[in-house]
Inverse folding.
């Protein structure tokens, strides 16, 4: 007999060790064990012939999850992981994302400007404060987007593992590209402002801007397509996305996939899509109950 500890009796997700699978695996309240794929006892848990004694942390004198032991913290957890939180974080992401791009644009020099003009703008620190403000907002945009993805991830049914993996991976890569693009163009300005030095040359600045444009206009839009397509596939299959949003999502994905121009208004498509999805989900929140039976947290 093996004795293992569960996170808490109130947790949605229980952890068990299957003596057949020989590995720790999250075992939700479902009739199938994830470790070995065998059917469990009483509709959930490890297989019938798995030798287990399940105990709670409290029974063994171990620490109990504070989220489950404190009613006040449990209420806050429900609020922070609610559909309303997803909608709010989606709207905040769109606002911070657009503001960071617009402010960062103030410090960008034109590619057709003469080196002498670029040098004069660098010496005068023209647009530096606005760019640095956009740089700071980029971090808040990333936090809001991660929260948006986390709340949605918690509510996606467990049988959507493949599409969920694409959604989470695409979201992570997109945020990394976005922060990298902002850091490449704004990082040198930040160092100059903090150290009170001037080392940027016109050619260097133009090269850094070229990298940022490549990340924002070539690489990031293709990753956004993964996020849009995967989220739309899940929303359509579970009748969470209305028909018009499905069509709009696929249209945006198609535009982002084939566009290779520097048409700046196209940068607005993805944040507006995220904000729209959040608001639509909040309106249809009755269909988005947190995953319990047959799901993983």
């Amino acid at each position: 007999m093996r004795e293992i500890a569960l996170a808490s009796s109130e947790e949605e997700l229980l952890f068990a060790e299957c003596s057949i699978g020989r590995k720790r695996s999250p075992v939700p309240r479902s009739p199938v064990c994830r470790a070995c794929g065998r059917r469990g006892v009483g509709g959930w848990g490890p297989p019938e012939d798995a030798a287990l004694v399940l105990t709670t942390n409290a029974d063994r004198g171990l620490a109990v999850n504070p989220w489950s032991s404190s009613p006040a913290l449990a209420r806050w957890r429900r609020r922070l992981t609610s559909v309303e939180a997803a909608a709010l974080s989606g709207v905040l992401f769109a606002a911070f994302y657009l503001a960071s791009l617009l402010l960062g644009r103030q410090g960008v020099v034109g590619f057709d400007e003469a080196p002498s003009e670029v040098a004069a703008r660098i010496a005068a620190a023209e647009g530096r404060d606005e760019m640095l403000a956009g740089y700071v907002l980029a971090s808040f945009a990333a936090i809001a987007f991660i929260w948006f993805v986390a709340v949605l991830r918690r509510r996606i049914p467990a049988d959507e593992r493949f599409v969920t993996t694409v959604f989470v991976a695409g979201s992570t890569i997109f945020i990394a590209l976005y922060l990298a693009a902002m850091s490449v163009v704004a990082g040198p300005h930040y160092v100059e402002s903090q150290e009170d030095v001037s080392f940027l040359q016109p050619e260097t600045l133009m090269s850094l801007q070229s990298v940022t444009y490549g990340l924002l206009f070539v690489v990031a839009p293709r990753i956004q397509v993964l996020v849009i397509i995967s989220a739309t596939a899940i929303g359509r299959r579970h009748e969470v996305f209305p028909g018009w949003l499905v069509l709009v999502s696929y249209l945006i994905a198609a535009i982002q996939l084939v566009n290779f121009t520097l048409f700046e208004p196209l940068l607005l498509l993805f944040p507006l899509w995220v904000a729209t999805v959040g608001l639509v989900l909040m309106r249809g929140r009755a269909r988005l109950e947190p995953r319990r039976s047959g799901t993983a947290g």
About this structure: Residues 1-31, 38-58, 292-297 have pLDDT under 50 and may be disordered. The chain has two domains: 2-66, 81-282. Residues 2-66 form one domain. Residues 108 and 209 are 7 Å apart (CA to CA).
